């Protein structure tokens, strides 16, 4: 048993790091992170070893370290930020962030694009680029680096009178407050903590689909809409959205929950001649989707399935791929449809047909499957502080909150939580 701390963070991703960077230095806190420190995290996101794939998500900097660093300044995406942050707080944080880091948003998008049964959200965006994130995070954590404990997985949290007891690999810490910031890498952790404290949870939808890749020449109309187009299609089977677009970028595979899924990113410099983006359907029924992903990973030995987009649309097997996949951890000959309920691929097909009307170049693209975004159950937290309404002094920030997801929302939740903690003193 160690000294009694004021505050413990579980997880060292962007939500935690921005929160910690704003705290008064009189607050005695520790960050417990299950992964490696920044220097030891794999330098190459495109290495296909299991260790590298898990390094994409775990370690200081969280999923944010190898992310694309795209910031979407819009309250209509990334969950429901206005449920947990007031508009006034969002405006204040945004202004201070722009001033501090000299952010000038990218050029405005094209709002005149006609979408068949859907809408096109156009708003300010910013792209850091994966190649600029390591240096950025190193600078951010310098003042509190000695408070980060790595290779330290939190197994359980209990309450002992006024204090929280946090159990890690054979040891335990006591703290007055705990902030859960475990992201999406362990989707069950925040809900297990919530359940153990009797916190009310509401089931959320899961997003399943694939990542499309094509030569930039065949994606020009799509990328003319904006840097990261946010098109929402209302299909018969649920909402399908374009997500995480990376002009001049790379496709990667990450390992979470014991299987491989696709993702993508782009550097600020050194662009490729390829672009990629995800197409995802929101659906209830987490278990059947996870089971499909696990089965797919078993059949492919933890690789991704690659098909031509036109073959997927026409229910055919891809004999010869339209382009050489830029990511090399894949198999061909298997069909995405085999692993998921029909509403998944029918919904995605319906959206793809609409998207092809905007960007005919997609007929020359390939897809990597599966891509999966797991939203947590939503938890009831106080606006701006992210403190559980039911368990005082227990907080849920970033992707672990369930009401919000994405980098900018994670950053805002951390900064806002720190402001409320400072006000309490
Ligand atoms: C390749 C890639 C590209 C992306 N690009 C973008 C983008 O451009 N824009 C965007 O908005 N979003 C992007 N994202 C998503 C974005 O990175 C996340 O939304 C963001 O990092 C969430 O921050 P967080 O602090 O909530 O959690 P995370 O960044 O997920 O960090 C959580 C941390 O908690 C640790 N942890 C988990 N469980 C435990 C435990 N029990 N004990 C101790 N530690 C634990 C994990 O190791 C991890 O380091 C991308 C993600 C990836 C993987």
Textual characterization of the structure:
The chain is an alpha+beta fold. It folds into two domains: 4-108 and 124-203 and 377-424, FAD/NAD(P)-binding domain (3-Layer(bba) Sandwich), CATH 3.50.50.60; 206-374, no CATH class. The chain has eleven helices and 21 strands. It has helices at residues 14-22, 50-55, 81-84, 87-100, 133-141, 188-196, 220-225, 286-300, 309-314, 342-358, 407-424; strands spanning 4-10, 29-32, 70-72, 118-121, 125-127, 148-149, 154-160, 163-168, 171-180, 201-202, 206-215, 230-235, 238-247, 250-256, 259-265, 274-283, 304-308, 330-331, 366-374, 378-379, 394-396. Strands 4-12-13-16-11-19-17-18 form an eight-stranded mixed β-sheet. Strands 1, 2, 6, 7, 8, 9 and 21 form a seven-stranded mixed β-sheet that branches. It has a two-stranded antiparallel ribbon with strand order 3-5. Helix 1 (14-22) runs parallel beside helix 11. The longest helix is centred in the last third of the chain and has 18 residues, at 407-424. The protein is globular. The protein starts with a strand and ends with a helix. The mean pLDDT is 92. It binds flavin-adenine dinucleotide. The site of flavin-adenine dinucleotide (FAD) has 45 residues, from helix 1, strand 14, strand 15 and helix 11. Residues 10-16, 32-35, 56-59, 62-64, 66-70, 153-154, 181-186, 189, 244, 252, 254, 263, 265, 398-400, 405-408, 410 line the site of flavin-adenine dinucleotide.
